Amino acid sequence: MKVTRATFDEVMVPNYNPAGMIPVKGEGSRVWDQDGAEYIDFAGGIAVNVLGHCHPELVNALNEQGSKLWHLSNVFTNEPALRLASKLTEATFAERVYFANSGAEANEAALKLARRYALENFGEHKSQIIAFNKGFHGRTFFTVTVGGQAAYSDGFGPKPGAVDHCDYNDLAAFEALISDNTCAVMMEPLQGEGGIISPEPEFVARVRELCNQHNALLIFDEVQTGVGRTGHLYAYMGLEVTPDILTSAKALGGGFPIGAMLTTAKIAEHLKPGTHGSTYGGNPLACAVAERALDIVNNPEVLEGVVKKEQMFRDYLAEINNKYKVFSEIRGKGLLLGCVLNDDYQGRARDFLVASADEHLMCLVAGTNVVRFAPSLIIPEEDIKEGLVRFERAIASIVNQK
């Protein structure tokens, strides 16, 4: 059956507007479309393809597990899930793990756990959830309400209550919101969709301190920042602030869908049998692939390589910007970087994305003013250089149109 981009408009719900080309094959940081045209991938499936496309060790893990056991349901446990959970607890602050299929599901579990923990320990009055404007936590009705972007949450009727927002890095506003009625604070340790915004160290430290003071749980949404993306296995490790609950997805499976919620034994005990669940969460296929991805990423060579590659990007982008003067700054950490458009190019991030695609470079946006890169953590240096040559051509095409 021959399918084209036009087929999408005929058979798919129109909530996406995908590119004109259809990728059919990937290897490492390169992708080929239906016509055989080759692209360099700086998008990483939105920070998902942490080891690039079709990494041979992930392919082997999938094939090996695929010939053994695919699905059981959580009436039973399975060996890959137990191994993966053991490795996650060994590598982090956590003592207990819950597996889901996505970041939204992991965040949904975290928020439900926080509410249950507060109810059972302190009473019904302790229900407030504080989150941050421009945050993003998923598309379920609960998580999209907690996410601080009205464009995603409005238009679906009454929202879940007791959710309040303030600006990221605005300590005074946060101090005014938090109280003994706060059950949880949910934040990204580096805002992704909201524009690649890093937390100020004193801000995140004070958030932790106030959570302790008010017996509120601190939830770090590390769906985008986790599994090596910032040069640490998880971003909290570089902030010297430990959350009570952490959520992980995207890169965790290296491209195979999986999500995880990590927490302490004391907090976890409030999700007793029957309080929450997932049909596919923790299935052997996903866990086998994620275990191998975690093994590969969680070593000094890969994590230190992320820091070196970040500097390569920053150096080359500075050279490009000296010529074309389109960015006001390069934000982010590790291989989650945002090129912030200056006043002359406000609102045109998508134009840069489209121009990049025309030059056979895949990249992302984060809002209307930031071009975002989230490539494979092991992207070869030659692919970084060639990708940025293509990005420079894209920039030149826009500057010359002006």
UniProtKB/TrEMBL annotation:
Top-level EC class: transferase
GO MF, one example: identical protein binding
Residues that bind pyridoxal 5'-phosphate: 103-104, 136, 221-224, 279
CDD domains in the record: OAT_like
InterPro entries referenced in this protein's UniProt entry, alphabetically: Ac/SucOrn_transaminase_bac, AcOrn/SuccOrn_fam, Aminotrans_3, Aminotrans_3_PPA_site, Class-III_PLP-dep_AT, PyrdxlP-dep_Trfase, PyrdxlP-dep_Trfase_major, PyrdxlP-dep_Trfase_small
EC number, as in UniProt: 2.6.1.11
UniProt keyword Amino-acid biosynthesis, yes or no: yes
Cited Gene3D superfamilies: Aspartate Aminotransferase, domain 1, Type I PLP-dependent aspartate aminotransferase-like (Major domain)
Record-listed N6-(pyridoxal phosphate)lysine modification sites: 250
Assembly behavior: Homodimer.
Extra remark: May also have succinyldiaminopimelate aminotransferase activity, thus carrying out the corresponding step in lysine biosynthesis.
Record's protein name: Acetylornithine aminotransferase
Organism: Alteromonas aestuariivivens
Lineage: Bacteria, Pseudomonadati, Pseudomonadota, Gammaproteobacteria, Alteromonadales
